[in-house]
Amino acid sequence: MLFWSALWTVSLPLIRGYLRKRAKKDPLYAQHLPERFGRYETPRRGAVWFHAVSLGEVRSAVPLMRAMLEAGEHLLITCFTPAGRREAERVFAGEAVQVVWVPLELERCFKRFFNAFAPKLGLVMEVEIWPRMVQSARDHGVPLLMCNAGYPLNSMMRDRGFPLRPAVMRRFAGALVKSELQRERFREVGVEPIFVTGELRFDQPIPPAHLEKGALALAALAQGRPVIGLASIVEGEEELILSAIARALTELTPRPLIVLVPRAPERFAPMAEALTEMGVNFARRSELFDKDLTLKDPAQIDLLLGDSIGEMYFYLSLTDRVLVGGGFTPKGSHNIIEPLALGKPVVVGPDISTIEYPAVEAIRAGVCLQVGPDQVLRAFSAEGWPGPRPDQITAFLEEHSGGTRRAMEALQPWLQK
Fold first, then answer.
1. Are strands 257-262 and 303-305 parallel, antiparallel or unpaired?
2. What is the 3-state secondary structure (H, E, C) of the chain?
C-alpha cells in the first residue's frame, strides 16, 4: 500500500495534466476539482454510497438506487467521468441524492471523503478495484461490497500471475454477483460472503417518451424499410462497421435504414466526417430532431447518426435488429440487455468477455447471434439470420430479471444496522 500511495503521489502532476487535457473536450472534467481531493460542500452524512465510475455503471445501478430511495434511504453517488455524473444528476434531479467526483486514490483524499460523508454502506458497481478506496473503507468502518459484479475469465487468468487484484478483492465486505459461474470465480480467489443476485440491467426502466417519439420517427423515416441498429460502436471497429454499412446500402434489397450510435461522444464528429467522405445520405440526430426528440424535418435519409447521450432507448426503438459494438475489439462487447428489453434480436462480435453473463445465456437461448468480422453483413438481414420469435425474447427476459429484489434482500443486514 505504501508503494501504491507513493506511485499516486508522484503521479499527481500527470493526473492534473490528464484532467486538463480531457477538459478541452469536456469542460466538466475541470469543474468541482476540490472534490477529487476529498473536499466537498455541504456533504450529507449517513447515505448509501454507490461508486459508479461512468455512464454504463450509473445506468446499471439505477434500478437498485430507485429501490433504495423507495426504502427511505438517501444516496451518495461518486463518478469519475462527466458522462456518468451528468447521467446521475439527470436521473435523480431534485431527489435525495448527492452526486460528486470520487476522490483520487490517495489516503488523505479518502480520509476527507469518509470524514465528510460517513456512508452507512458502500456499493462499487461492476468490478472497480482501487486498493486505497477499499482499505480506507475498512479503516473507517464502512462495509464496502462489489455490486452487479462479474469476474471475466481473461482477467482471472491474468491475476494468477499478478495476484494484487485478488488480494484487494478479499478486502471487500462481500460481493453481489451476476451468476453461479461468477460465484465460483469469486470464491476461488477467496471473496466472502457472495450473493448471486443477477444482472441489474434487466430491471432498468424504459423511458415511455423515448418509445413514443421513436414510433413517430420510425413512421416518418423508415417508410416500410427494414431498420438496422448499430449501437455503442467503438473506435477500434469503426472501419469494419463503415465497410458493412457501405455494402448494406448497395447490396441489400430492400435497402435498409441504418441507425448508427457511436459509444463515445468524441467519435460523433469523426464518424460524421467518414460518412460524408463515403457519400452516405445521412443526418445527425442533433440536426433532424429538437431537444424533445420531435422530428423537425422528415428527410429522406439512409442513415441516422445518433450524436447524443442518454437516448439509447429512442434509437433502439427505431430498429428491427441491433448489432451491439465493442466485441470486434479486444476490449469486449457492450450491453445487450437494452435492445433485448425492447424485443430486438441482438448481434455481437467475437469478444463477449465483458458481458459473459448474460451473453452466453442469450446465445444459447437463440436471442443473440455471435458473428466474426467477415460475417457482419449476415447480421443485417433476415435472410442471413432469421432471428428469434418474440416469445423467445420475452421468456429470456422473464428468466433473468429480478436482480434488484435479490440485491435488496442480500443487503438488508447492512441496511438495518
1. parallel
2. CHHHHHHHHHCHHHHHHHHHHHHHHCHHHHCCHHHHHCCCCCCCCCCEEEECCCHHHHHHHHHHHHHHHHCCCCEEEEECCHHHHHHHHHHCCCCCEEEEECCCCCHHHHHHHHHHHCCCEEEEECCCCCHHHHHHHHHCCCCEEEEEECCCHHHHHHHHHCCHHHHHHCCCCEEEECCHHHHHHHHHCCCCCEEECCCHHHHCCCCHHHHHHHHHHHHHHCCCCCEEEEEEECHHHHHHHHHHHHHHHHHCCCCCEEEEEECCHHHHHHHHHHHHHHCCCEEEHHHHECCCCCECCCCCCCEEECCCCCCHHHHHHCCCEEEECCCCCCCCCCCCHHHHHCCCCEEECCCCHHHHHHHHHHHHHCCEEECCHHHHHHHHCCCCCCCCCHHHHHHHHHHHCCHHHHHHHHHHHHHCC
Give the Cα-Cα-Cα angle 308, 238, 156 (nearest 5 degrees). Answer: 95
Percent of the chain exceeding pLDDT 70 equals: 100
390 class by beta-carbon count within 10 Å (0-12 exposed, 13-18 middle, 19+ buried):
exposed
Among residues 55, 112, 61, the alpha carbon closest in space to that of 87 is found at: 55
Residue 3 has pLDDT above 90, yes or no: no
> For 148-194, how does the pLDDT look when each residue is reduced to its tens digit (9 = 90+)?
999 988 889 999 888 889 999 999 999 999 999 999 999 999 999 99
Catalytic positions, written as ranges: 57
CA–CA gap between residue 265 and residue 25 (Å, rounded): 10
Whether 131 contacts 168, CB under 8 Å: yes
Question: For the segment 338-381, what is each residue's pLDDT rounded down to a tens digit?
Answer: 999 999 999 999 999 999 999 999 999 999 999 999 999 988 98
The position carrying cell 461490497 is 145
Neighbours of 158 (CB within 10 A): 11
Q: To 10 degrees, what angle do helices 55-70 and 403-415 make?
A: 60
Cα–Cα distances in Å, from 68 out to 55, 71, 74, 125? 19, 5, 7, 15
Q: How far apart are CA 156 and CA 151, in angstroms?
A: 7
Q: What is the pLDDT of residues 82-98, one digit of tens each?
A: 989 999 999 999 999 99
